Amino acid sequence: MGHPYYNLPSPTALAAFEALARHLSFKLAASELNVTPGAVGRQIKAIEEELGVPLVARLATGVTLTGPGEDLYQALASTLSRASEVVSRLERGGRCKNCCDCLLGCFHARRCR
Fold first, then answer.
1. CB 95 within 8 A of CB 89
2. How many whole angstroms separate alpha carbon 56 and alpha carbon 24?
3. Which of 47, 60, 86, 106 has the smallest number of Cβ neighbours within 10 A?
4. Mind giving me the DSSP string for 26-53?
5. Per-residue tens of pLDDT for the chain, all 113 residues
6. Taking the complete model, does pTM exceed 0.85, yes or no?
């Protein structure tokens, strides 16, 4: 199920887990992803089976993250935040907010040729 080069669950399952972890609600995660709560549940179950650990505790009042679930969520949130920053920069034509970063990057690129 995972990516052939990285030891990761499918991107679809990771997106479902990230949304569930952020909302702590199958219904809200499903609404955000335009799928059913059952589809989110199946993705979460698939990740849990693949990893061999429970990521969420299902309660009558919603869900909470387990220790491993919290670890995975923190890693995903950090990675997605960094990726979002890069995408935003690329959408601006690669221009940085900080001129010093650009100058240092250009200098380093020339030195590495």
1. yes
2. 9
3. 60
4. HHHHHHHHTS-HHHHHHHHHHHHHHHTS
5. 555 667 889 999 999 999 999 999 999 999 999 999 999 999 999 999 999 999 999 998 889 999 999 999 999 999 999 999 999 999 988 765 555 555 455 444 444 44
6. no
Report the number of distinct structural domains present in the chain: 1
Show the domain range for 64: 11-111
Residue 29 lies inside a defined structural domain of this protein: yes
Look at strands 62-65 and 56-59 and give their pairing: antiparallel
